[in-house]
Amino acid sequence: MLSQFVRLVALSLAFSLAVASAAAADDRCAGKLGTARILSVDPAGLHVGTKHFPQTLALADHEVVLTFDDGPNPGTTPKMLKILADQCVHATFFVVGRNAQAHPDLVKRIIAEGHTLGHHSMTHPMTLADISYDKAVADIEQGFRADEKAAYGHAGTRLRVPFFRFPGFGSSPELLAYLDTRGIATFGADLWASDWEKQTPEHQLNLVMERLQHAGKGIILFHDTRAQTVAMMPAFLAALQAQGYRVVQPVPVANVASAPQ
Hints:
Oligomer: single chain
Pfam families: Polysacc_deac_1 (PF01522)
Helix content: 40-55%
CATH topology of the largest domain: TIM Barrel
Largest sheet: 7 strands, parallel
Domain NodB homology: 62-248
Signal peptide: 1-25
Family: Belongs to the polysaccharide deacetylase family.
Mean pLDDT: 90
CATH architecture of the largest domain: Alpha-Beta Barrel
Keywords: Hydrolase, Metal-binding, Signal
Radius of gyration: 19 Å
Low-confidence stretches: 1-24, 256-261
Number of helices: 8
């Protein structure tokens, strides 16, 4: 009887702590942009982003998905993570395998702070479509293993998050078909800030907001490796909130139960 009583007390205490933690999170995020909803995505055969594919994610008007490519980078990614955390915003980071391998602490932090971890090849060639099929597949698979090991300590046979974005959007029908056989979703984008080009944060902000206002919604591509994008991001998140945009976080359908709310 005593052991049963102790277990009941422990369960009650755990529940109370969980409720208190959720309430504290709600208080911390009050009045901030936040993440409006989690979007459960079935990755099987999925190709999204109207810049390259016929369809995109099931987004309502004024809903956006924030994505960041090419990291992690110790000089810029921690700053980007802090900016997102300050506004309770969750994004998707498509990491490069060799960078994940070099900075596993940052990969783990991306996950610990509630973001979605996607994949972006091992070496980020200019385009995987311009190298042989076998070399391209090897680079993709090596990236998967490096990312998984950095994030979780080991690489399994199935990806925890089967989301992939081609470097430079350089896909081919054969490589798309390969990812389809692996049950891995291919992410393109609906718009971007062109932040691979040198520009001031102010110019970049005006450019991406103009494109977003024209599109009305969509998957937005940024690079967390670009200092100008880090400098622009607080003003961009403020502009999203001021203009009534809502942030959506896609997660694989199998992971929706454990996604941050």
